[in-house]
Sequence to fold (363 residues):
Amino acid sequence: MKYDYLIVGAGFAGSVMAERLATQLDKKVLIVEKRPHIGGNAYDEYDEHGILVHRYGPHIFHTNSKKVFDYLSQFTEWIPYEHKVLAKLDGKLYPIPINRITLNKLYNLEFQTDKDVEEFYKKVKEKRYPIKNSEDIIVNQVGTDLFEKFFKHYTKKQWNLEPKELSASVCGRIPVRTNDDCRYFTDKYQFMPKDGYTKMFERILSHKNIEVVLNTDYKKITNDIKFNKLIYTGPIDYFFDYEFGKLPYRSIRFEYRNFDMEYYQTTAQVNYVNHSEEYTRVVEHKYLSGQRAKDTTVSFEYPQSDGEPFYPIPTEKNRQIYLKYSNQAKNLQNVQFVGRLAEYQYYNMDQVIANTLKKSEEI
Fold:
């Protein structure tokens, strides 16, 4: 059989692209996925205790894009969910992102208004210009003490680099607030798929024109199948056989533990910002799904350099390597590179979906 498109990878980029090509253009699509499951890093499943867990860390859906929300709503019902995160610092818990409650508790203050907090930030922040890195962007907003308490060690654990060695975009993703809003995100649409992400992916891919092959490296079968065009969502350096060197990623080792108690912690996610703990965060999965059970499963996250590629490491040196691959990619007629790994970008889920919808419209 001949396929119109071979798509490498069954995560958001590959699956959304396959669905659009199959339903809008009536194209025949073969997806080849090296993992034993669809869904990429958003894959979830019930563990041996019957708790729905996110196998590659918490995936919280949030977006301001009605287009992205409406698109996914074709394949899932939703449950409302607003993510809340606490930072554990010297044995005490504080809301993250930093807000008025964080400051009042940390410094034993009694700020009442946004203006009080703005005045405080004005006093403690250090003017950094130009903003060159992740240390600059935080110190420029909240000063050295808050930077060292909440950002410095956590960032070092997560990336194995000092914040000043990382692009400003890394810590710049985290807002600093003057109000008492304890939600991690403030987007218009904040929901979780009612039956989980994997079920949603199954519906996205359940079209007669889409075929999925799992547990397979596409390079091992490209000579055996006929296709017109290739859409690649894997690591771009692997596509080019590491011609310009390997692009580094941070990975994570997940340690799952089940506890015979209803809840292990008071919120879905606790970040460990001291350097004394090896893990960066602990996630309690029942909060994400709204599931009720007598016991609970939590995951401890240990960042590492080896393993599945999760986070592109945004340094100038790595950007230069990526640009060499990107320039090479532009020379290819029938290959399109889409998604976080193929574009070496730290995208949120909604950004990947929006980007993929845009590229599918161009096709």
Summary: The chain has two domains: 2-80+192-245+312-362, 85-172.
